Amino acid sequence: MAASDIPCARDVLSIETEEPPFVRVAVVVGPGADLLDRALVGWERFLGTFDGASDE
Questions:
Q1: d(CA 14, CA 32)
Q2: Residue 36: inside a domain
Q3: Contact indicator for 8, 24 with CB cutoff of 8 Å
Q4: Would you call 14 helix, strand, or coil by DSSP?
Q5: Does residue 55 belong to any structural domain of this protein?
Q6: 3-class SS of residue 11
Q7: Residue 13 · residue 21 · CB < 8 Å
């Protein structure tokens, strides 16, 4: 489900009722492989800024 498929509360809230509408929320179980790969590259780049042996 894309974020654009989820209606904004202001678009679906009826003026006649004060109760907020039920809105579906996409659940993300964990980070994706792309995010983990980018984090690893960033971590390795960060570690490369230090002087000294990398196995310490």
A1: 37
A2: yes
A3: no
A4: coil
A5: no
A6: helix
A7: yes
pLDDT recorded at residue 50: 87
Provide the domain limits for residue 24. 3-47
What percent of the chain clears pLDDT 70, i.e. is strictly above it?
55
Total domains in the fold of the chain: 1
Burial of 39 (0-12, 13-18, 19+ CB in 10 A): exposed
Q: Terminus-to-terminus CA distance in the chain, angstroms?
A: 45
- Residue 40, in any domain of the structure: yes
Q: What is the pLDDT of residues 5-32, one digit of tens each?
A: 665 655 555 555 666 667 777 777 888 9
Give the length of the chain.
56
